[in-house]
Amino acid sequence: MMRKQVDIAEQVKQLKETRLSSYLSSQEIETMLSHCKIVSFLPKQIIFHQGKCVEGFYLIVKGNVNVYARTLGEGIKKIEVLGPGDFLGEISFIENDPSLTSAITEKQVKCLHITSIYFELLASYSPETKYKILRKISIQVCRRLKHIHDKAADFIAHTDMIALSLFGRVVHSFTHPKPLAHSIDYTPLRKKVLFQRFTEIEMDELFALMQPLEAPKNCILIHEGEKNPSCFIVIHGAVQSSIMQDNKMAKLSVIGPGTLFASIACVDDKSEFTITFMTCESALLLKISEEKLRFLQKNKPLLWFKLFNLICESIIALGKSINKLDIRLHIEMYNR
């Protein structure tokens, strides 16, 4: 056996001992190693800096990595410790933005460096492998989201933020989206960046499964505590994502036309937290229900993989919004 084949066989064995083997086959791991390299880092070595772009992203094979962020009032703070099977730099890579954190090794660390070229090739040659990786990335992001969500919810509960009035709660309980009475011209939507990965036939199939809705202002689309997976595309109007706690609301971000947003349950239906989505003005939307999502997953896997790309991007965008809220809460506590 050639030396390179021996090395790859040994590396496949290493990766099969991580959580990677729980969702990728031996063949998928071997193919990945033919395009990507396992790289070693010394103790206390910086893998990437906050504010810098990361080429590709990393999967930790061995050792632990400390993730830090510089925040106002607290200086440099350790955010989390990641270990074998966890991803590094994935948010910066998917968003194509500078990293919001720095990553520094504790002791000697080995990582699989997943290059941007390889990851883009997966869309054409192995979309299922790409989907499996994106799903695990999304679950890891949701794990972070829950940590910050719970911290924010606790802060909200113990502050003097104004709670929703009885009238406001009644309005929210009685306003519901309604099926649109007239047909929609999908031509402008087809030209949006959102659908650049989809063929005309795929867009036709997807639009046929979507329900057009009209929703008044202050209409809750995804409720606090809702466990059913669903996603929406905003055609007109705007939607506000928020954390709700004890009838108090901390706003996250405003979602405008041509954007998809999804419930946490689309990634993790066992999740113990939810994000509330509510119209901040009258809106026209397309909804993909739990039933239709499961239909796609079972009967149209290639279309489902592409849709999940958008779901993953929406969860990561949500993560950035919650990170900004976390910073605002740090500032609030610092000012006190």
UniProtKB/TrEMBL annotation:
GO cellular component terms, A-Z: cytosol
GO molecular function: DNA-binding transcription factor activity
SUPFAM superfamilies: cAMP-binding domain-like (SSF51206)
InterPro entries: cNMP-bd_dom, cNMP-bd_dom_sf, Env_Response_Regulators, RmlC-like_jellyroll
Highest taxon listed in the record's lineage: Bacteria
All copies of domain Cyclic nucleotide-binding, residue ranges: 20-140, 194-296
Spans traversing the lipid bilayer: none
Entries under Gene3D superfamilies matching the protein: Jelly Rolls
Name the UniProt record assigns to this protein: cNMP binding domain-containing protein
Organism of this sequence: Legionella israelensis
